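User: For documentation purposes, I need each entry recorded in a consistent format: the amino acid sequence on its own, followed directly by the corresponding structure tokens. There are two entries in this batch. Please keep commentary to a minimum and don't merge the entries.

Assistant: Recorded as requested. Entry 1:
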Amino acid sequence: MYHVVVGVDDEAEHALRCVEEVVNLPGGVEEKSVTLIHTFVDNPSGASATQVQSVREAADYLEEHGIECEIEESSGDPADAIVRTADGGEADLIVVGGRKRSPAGKALFGSVTQSVVLGAQRPVMVTGVD
């Protein structure tokens, strides 16, 4: 079984782009399993990851394509949570969405994607840039 961890933020378009790439990975759907991880940075209402639209849409897309999917949630730093989830589940691959940012924007605000790429001890796929 090929296990993929997908970091899902609040943007449904990013989440769908990530899971589309998982579906397109070589091998049959029965050979793939996916863990979707959503990290709450601020969650005053106490929502769960399954209530987040981007997570629901990503999970629905995987299920429509016959891929086994599990949803996890955490709080704190998203990059740390993605890497920790991948390490704990002995993932074969991490998938995260990329986005265009100016050099100043990267320096000032950091990047979850960049932190995952630099902090992971396993392959990382960065999907589409908008």
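Entry 2:
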Amino acid sequence: MSALLIGAGLIAVATITPGPNNLLVMRIAARSGFMSALPAMAGVVAGGLAMWALVTAGASVAFQAQPRLYTVITIAGAAYLCWMGARLIVGTFAASGRSLPAETSVRPNSAMALFGFQFLNPKGWVLVLTVTAAVGNGAAHLQTSLMLAALFTVIPALCLALWCAMGILMMRYLDTHAARNWIDRLMGALLFVSALMLVLVPVDMSHR
């Protein structure tokens, strides 16, 4: 039980702190409401569960055998974050010339895009590998696996819901076209910073 509590703490700290997933989900909630952000939240949670399933099936061996795999994931993840950040920033300038508010609907592929991004997020892999190693199989493998699956589902969902609430509250006081554009520019800039942090603060996964 103590190992599960440690794992829960690691997941909570990793998922509540600012990061690309939280920023993107918060942005969707701010522009389109909590219900519109649910598919994106589901994509993040499902991606995390899929990563955990791969690690449980033996993906950690691949990182140990091929340390360069982490470098490939880091570069791909940073490039993807830069692309998303650039789209947000460029979109605000394109919308600035319109007389009508910018479109705030959520694209149907938001959930799939965030689901796929989880596999390009090296910090996510580190979290899953660390928690899985800390908890271990235990005497009751099935029970431990079910508990881990629950932790990787409930805790990230609650943390994302909090970020959604912050986004909705923020836009309640900044509900103008100009303010929305500046928020999107800030979000885009933060995604660039997240990409830079991925590259400048690498994590050695070969010993996980």
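Summary note for entry 2:
Residues 2-200 form one domain.
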